[in-house]
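Predict the structure of Glutamyl-tRNA(Gln) amidotransferase subunit A.
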Amino acid sequence: AHLDRIAAVDAGVHAFLHVDAEGALAQAAESDARRAAGEARHLLDGVPIAVKDVLATQGLPTTCGSKILEGWVPPYDATVVRRIKDAGLPILGKTNMDEFAMGSSTEHSAYGPTRNPWDQTRIPGGSGGGSAAAVAAFEAPLALGTDTGGSIRQPGAVTGTVGVKPTYGGVSRYGLVALANSLDQVGPVTRTVLDSALLHELIGGHDPLDSTSVDAPVGAYVEAARQGATGDLAGLRVGVIKELAGDGWQAGVMARFAETVELLEKLGAEVTEISCPTFVHAMATYYLILPAECSSNLAKFDAMRYGLRVVPEGDPSAEAVMRATRDAGFGDEVKRRIMIGTYALSSGYYDAYYGQAQKVRTLISRDFAAAFESVDVLVSPTSPTTAFPLGEKLDDPLAMYLQDLATIPANLAGVPGISVPAGLADEDGLPVGFQVLAPALADERLYRVGAAVE
Ligand code: GLN
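Done. Here is the predicted structure for Glutamyl-tRNA(Gln) amidotransferase subunit A.
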């Protein structure tokens, strides 16, 4: 049914870069046989899933939305991919994304943009617009995304789906092509909070192949979601982040946010306003740390080891091949960040930029720690606006970066966050996302609160 749906709508939505109909049907048939024999491996055995094209899938192309990886077929599975395969989830295909996960609209994909199923003239968010659009358009019931600065939560917000960024280290990054190693997390993209909880329990947990993986038991997310769904939040302390409102925040977004906060109060939560003064510096901090890490990560695309290789006529030297390949293989946004990162890391500038950003990062973590002394969760709108028209911010990187104002602090501090649908904005009838943030390793709280308000 999902393959039929993909065939019917994906020419317009363009959520997928690669559909593996044959593989998915074979996996589904095996799952049917297991179920008939009463041997299902997991509650989700047989439930199809779409995978963001930044996660390595053995035997299936993995492009990261980039020309430089066109035609690369990984010889191994990411740990999260292995876990969903072992549980029997058929993989429908690989979803579209901004090149190397840099962007907030999926327009930076080298393979053309994904369109928002709510209004195909608008963006589906990014960088994981493909995963969110696939779930919103009923092309897949579940998807995997990755969130470095908001790429699961912001697409969730603008497509009316649920997206979770787990605690840093809570889900393995092995086989995730790194954008920024200290910020990246894999997480679920689904239509309900309970579905995210189920998927998170499946993909979460320690992995010896990822040195930053936390060696702690997986939380009881499903249980927390069920508890939240009863609508009882008596005694829960909720902090509304003061800095994430005001100029530039769409009226319809703020109205749905305020209503959801009222709902929390009705369900028994104690709501207070909390100031996190350093959050206003989160964007500037992120756009030094992320380019620094990604400029180093992307050095491996040297025309020798993976994908594309361009040999300029008359000069087959290694340096010329490298230059020509990187020039042809990387898009503008990727080049912009490599240049910013290389500059910020260069000797003489390192302390002024990268070193300074690391200090501010620590202050942001301290703001979180101080806030979580007096509240259990923090809340904000996920994104300042609803889905904007395709092309609107493409020539204005700063305007694009501002989409992630509310999501970036969680990545800098490593804390978990969820975006749940909060209704439609009055002025344009488009989905609004409500963000809940919790302390590190307290991901259960996201599911409890998320399920109570969805
Ligand atoms: N939009 C942000 C960026 O461009 C977030 C990316 C992400 O989370 N992968 O960096």
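The chain has a mean pLDDT of 97.
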